[in-house]
Amino acid sequence: MVQAKYGRHEAKDAAKELLRGVITAPCLPVDANGELDEDGWRHDLRHCLDVIQASGLYVNGYYGHFWLLTSEQRRRVVEIAVEEAGGRVPIIARCAHPSPGEAIALAKHAQGLGVDFISLVLPQFGGAHKDALFGYFETIAREIELGITIFNTRQAGYAIAPETMAELAEIPNICALKNGLDMAHTIRIRELVGDSIVVVDPNEENFLVNLTQFGQQAIYTGTNMMFDSATRQPMRDYVQAGLAGRFEEAARGFYELQRLRDLHSAWVLTPWRAKGLCPIATVKLWSHLQGMTGGPVPPAIPALSKTEEDQLRDELAAAGVGA
What we know:
InterPro entries: Aldolase_TIM, DapA-like. By secondary structure, this protein is α/β, with parallel strands linked by helices. It is 48% helix and 11% strand. It has a single domain, classed as TIM Barrel (Alpha-Beta Barrel). Helix 4 packs parallel to helix 5 (130-141) and helix 10 (234-243) packs antiparallel against helix 11. The mean pLDDT is 95.
């Protein structure tokens, strides 16, 4: 057990310093029974760190099907991530839970391991009212030292309004927002919060605009494990060029990815947005073709049909993935 790396009143500064570059959110490998494949998880973490050279790790996210795991399984996932990272990159640990008490327990465990930030999502039950939502986040925030990054999506059936986010940003250790809504919503939040917190649009297709027009320095995403591999890292390269101020080079790299981006939209983003189903089976197969473990989906998650698998493999091979 280690002490938090900073105090809650230093969280906002820590976020501005550490949240930079591509922070990868990998899938969680499991066996046929849905149990954690520890060897596969270690392999994928090393792949993210050493092969595609992620600037950070985002663990127990949606691609990690955190909502299907027990609290002990979620703790183990973070423990292994901390071991494999060895302090080389920042780690964001998703500690979301409908119960504030359970979220606090997960967050304190992650804090004790030495992670850099925790992530929370909107509570699924009873949180849509502004006062209840504020109370949920405030209750958790005052019990921990680490900075909190909130993921704002409609997965809970509602989303945080920009005006409410501006109030939440005043809590000392709420330091970042991953805003999975449209650009207009993100821009309005930025107008209201200024530079008090880090605001991240996680959509890779928006990153060039967010970087060049709004100064976004980080992206939390699983996209790079689908775009980057051992042979080439085009997403990492254009992001790094942009962060270094080489905007023309970044733009060339960004637009060269359009064929993969179109496939990502068709296979990952559009089904997720239209059907509300996190496309874990698709992401697992795609990332497997780029060198990660892949493997079975948890029993509660729909698998791809043989026809869908074959079609995805063929379309990706035509784009140079897994050929």
